[in-house]
């Protein structure tokens, strides 16, 4: 049998690797900067206890903190991205560990600042703000600190929490190592009879196979491998959630969920409304599942049949070069400036394209203020991979425009709005393809793919969000999480979301064990709200043209200069109402109607 294996990092062409030398030319430069940060740490001592002395002292302290933050993000991002190239590389594991420990030291060194600001005599800070024009830059940041006053602890307690931070990273770090570096899957047999190593990168490709036997084998092989360590995965996740609950309690929040939402100043009703609105539309999701079962001509629809394209005659093999051209064509409505930055990213080694041994799975966009954004991919020559490229470049352009328009203090945008730019890109590329495609079968394939984006981004991520809320509540109420009760809750949610027309294979109950986002609590709901906002922007851009583009690009340039809910509202999307989610799911219902007609 023909044997396929993952390439080693050294076998990947330089043209398909990112150029991290744009951050540090080599490890020696990284070491120099690491040492410089260690020296700068001690400078905080001269500010501690003296912030209320005069405005110049306060501003100098803010500048010291910003300088530390700017340097640290480069040291940390470089180390982590090098490790992500091959998680087995001990040198890069060590650099990442050192960068993480340094981040804790930086947090500890600056931990006096917020408590001291809040302890200033009443009126002193307002006097500083009123009398010095230089203080204007810090107005929004100070407002954000002051609104959290009841959740800020004493200087000594803040220092302790900062130092505990490294311990809090342990569950996620252990999961990442086990999941990316140690976990190996057996070979499976593909459609051509070849024996191929199953990887997290090619799993979805197998799940999209037209051969049900291949789908079933990939599904059972993947979850069978996770099942061997099910109690370890449960203990790791349980530890992560205990950490979330500990920090929320320490900061006097009613729950870990409310602590997480407060970072973005997002009201709890936004989270709950998302879940409730999605539940309203579950009958439409069940209708889509029924259509899938009928179109695939299956007497039984299994969980391993959920990803396969409904239109079997259509296979779209899209090389990376073709994917880039499709993305550029689809994003033309965003204007020449946007496209020129996009092309710069493609031509100047922002992107790490292909999967290799030990490489971190999935995809992300990252980078530093002084370099440029970077994108990690595991490209598989599929339509899905093309959309992943569009998605991640959306993040990167958001970063680029925020960095270009905002000082470092406000350049980093909040995660609540992070998914808007990425999913808007996917939506515009899809709308372009739907408009240009004349072949009925390919059109049906694309509508199906668009429906899958809704299923994967609104329905699936909201199911994840509901799961996160449930499991945190159990720990907050003094309960324990085990592999058994995690799997039971997860199975019940799948039943509610997918309905009675799908066979709930027992393996799906263990899916929680492989989701890395659960180690970054209450993140995934932002995919669903972001997607909903993106659909609203996309419709406006295609219908209004230039005025909507201008509002959208201003939003992308906003960074964190205002609260995310306000940035969206200024651009015309109000996430405090159920309207954006409801309207997006209305589009989902229209697409189900359209697919029914296309399939006859």
From TrEMBL:
<keyword id="KW-0479">Metal-binding</keyword>
<keyword id="KW-0378">Hydrolase</keyword>
<comment type="function">
    <text>Has oligopeptidase activity and degrades a variety of small bioactive peptides.</text>
</comment>
<dbReference type="InterPro" id="IPR013647">
    <property type="entry name" value="OligopepF_N_dom"/>
</dbReference>
<feature type="domain" description="Oligopeptidase F N-terminal">
    <location>
        <begin position="116"/>
        <end position="185"/>
    </location>
</feature>
<dbReference type="Pfam" id="PF01432">
    <property type="entry name" value="Peptidase_M3"/>
</dbReference>
<feature type="domain" description="Peptidase M3A/M3B catalytic">
    <location>
        <begin position="206"/>
        <end position="586"/>
    </location>
</feature>
<keyword id="KW-0482">Metalloprotease</keyword>
<dbReference type="InterPro" id="IPR042088">
    <property type="entry name" value="OligoPept_F_C"/>
</dbReference>
<dbReference type="Pfam" id="PF08439">
    <property type="entry name" value="Peptidase_M3_N"/>
</dbReference>
<comment type="similarity">
    <text>Belongs to the peptidase M3B family.</text>
</comment>
<dbReference type="GO" id="GO:0006518">
    <property type="term" value="P:peptide metabolic process"/>
</dbReference>
<dbReference type="InterPro" id="IPR001567">
    <property type="entry name" value="Pept_M3A_M3B_dom"/>
</dbReference>
<dbReference type="InterPro" id="IPR004438">
    <property type="entry name" value="Peptidase_M3B"/>
</dbReference>
<dbReference type="GO" id="GO:0004222">
    <property type="term" value="F:metalloendopeptidase activity"/>
</dbReference>
<dbReference type="GO" id="GO:0006508">
    <property type="term" value="P:proteolysis"/>
</dbReference>
<protein>
    <recommendedName>
        <fullName>Oligopeptidase F</fullName>
        <ecNumber>3.4.24.-</ecNumber>
    </recommendedName>
</protein>
<keyword id="KW-0862">Zinc</keyword>
<keyword id="KW-0645">Protease</keyword>
<dbReference type="GO" id="GO:0046872">
    <property type="term" value="F:metal ion binding"/>
</dbReference>
<dbReference type="InterPro" id="IPR045090">
    <property type="entry name" value="Pept_M3A_M3B"/>
</dbReference>
């Amino acid at each position: 049998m023909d044997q396929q294996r993952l390439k080693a990092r050294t076998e990947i062409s330089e043209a398909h690797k990112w150029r991290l030398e744009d951050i540090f030319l080599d490890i020696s430069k990284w070491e120099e900067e690491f040492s410089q940060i260690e020296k700068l740490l001690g400078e905080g001592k001269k500010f501690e206890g003296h912030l209320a002395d005069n405005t110049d002292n306060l501003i100098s302290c803010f500048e010291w903190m910003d300088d530390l933050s700017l340097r640290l993000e480069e040291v940390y991002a470089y180390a982590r991205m090098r490790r992500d190239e091959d998680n087995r590389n001990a040198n890069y594991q060590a650099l990442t560990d050192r960068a993480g420990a340094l981040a804790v030291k930086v947090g500890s060194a600056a931990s006096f600042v917020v408590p001291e600001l809040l302890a200033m005599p009443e009126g002193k800070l307002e006097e500083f703000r009123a009398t010095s024009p230089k203080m204007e830059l810090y107005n929004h940041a100070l407002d954000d600190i002051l609104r959290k006053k009841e959740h800020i602890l004493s200087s000594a307690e803040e220092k302790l929490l900062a130092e505990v931070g490294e311990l809090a990273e342990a569950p996620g770090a252990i999961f990442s190592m086990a999941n990316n570096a140690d976990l190996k899957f057996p070979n499976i047999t593909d459609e051509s009879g070849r024996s191929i190593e199953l990887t997290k990168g090619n799993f979805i490709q197998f799940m999209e196979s037209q051969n049900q036997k291949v789908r079933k084998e990939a599904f059972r092989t993947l979850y069978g491998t996770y099942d061997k360590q099910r109690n370890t995965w449960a203990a790791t996740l349980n530890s992560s959630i205990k950490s979330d609950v500990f920090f929320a309690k320490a900061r006097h929040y009613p729950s870990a969920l409310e602590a997480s939402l407060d970072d973005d100043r997002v009201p709890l009703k936004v989270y709950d409304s998302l879940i409730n609105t999605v539940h309203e539309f579950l009958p439409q999701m069940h209708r889509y599942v029924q259509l899938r079962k009928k179109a695939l001509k299956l007497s039984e629809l299994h969980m391993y049949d959920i990803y396969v394209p409904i239109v079997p005659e259509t296979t779209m093999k899209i090389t990376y070069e073709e994917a880039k051209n499709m993305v550029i064509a689809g994003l033309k409505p965003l204007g020449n400036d946007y496209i020129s930055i996009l092309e710069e990213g493609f031509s100047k080694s922002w992107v790490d394209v292909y999967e290799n041994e030990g490489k971190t799975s999935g995809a992300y966009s990252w980078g530093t203020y002084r370099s440029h954004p970077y994108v990690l991919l595991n490209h598989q020559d599929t339509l899905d991979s093309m959309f992943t490229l569009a998605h991640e470049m959306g993040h990167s352009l958001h970063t680029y425009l925020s960095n270009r328009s905002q000082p470092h203090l406000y350049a980093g945008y909040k995660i609540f709005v992070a998914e808007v730019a990425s999913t808007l890109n996917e939506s515009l590329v899809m709308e372009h393809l739907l408009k240009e495609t004349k072949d009925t079968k390919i059109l049906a394939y694309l509508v199906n793919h668009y429906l899958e984006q809704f299923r994967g981004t609104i329905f699936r991520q909201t199911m994840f969000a509901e799961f996160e809320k449930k499991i945190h509540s159990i720990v907050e109420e003094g309960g324990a999480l085990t592999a058994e009760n995690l799997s039971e809750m997860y199975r019940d949610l799948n039943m509610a979301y997918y309905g009675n027309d799908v066979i709930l294979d027992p393996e799906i109950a263990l899916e929680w064990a492989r989701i890395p986002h659960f180690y970054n609590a209450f993140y995934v709901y932002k995919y669903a709200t972001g997607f909903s906002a993106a659909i609203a922007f996309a419709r406006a851009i295609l219908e209004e043209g230039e005025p909507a583009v201008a509002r959208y690009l201003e939003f992308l340039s906003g960074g964190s200069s205002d609260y995310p809910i306000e940035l969206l509202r200024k651009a015309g999307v109000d996430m405090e109402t159920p309207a954006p989610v409801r309207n997006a799911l209305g589009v989902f219902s229209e697409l189900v109607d359209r697919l029914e007609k296309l399939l006859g």
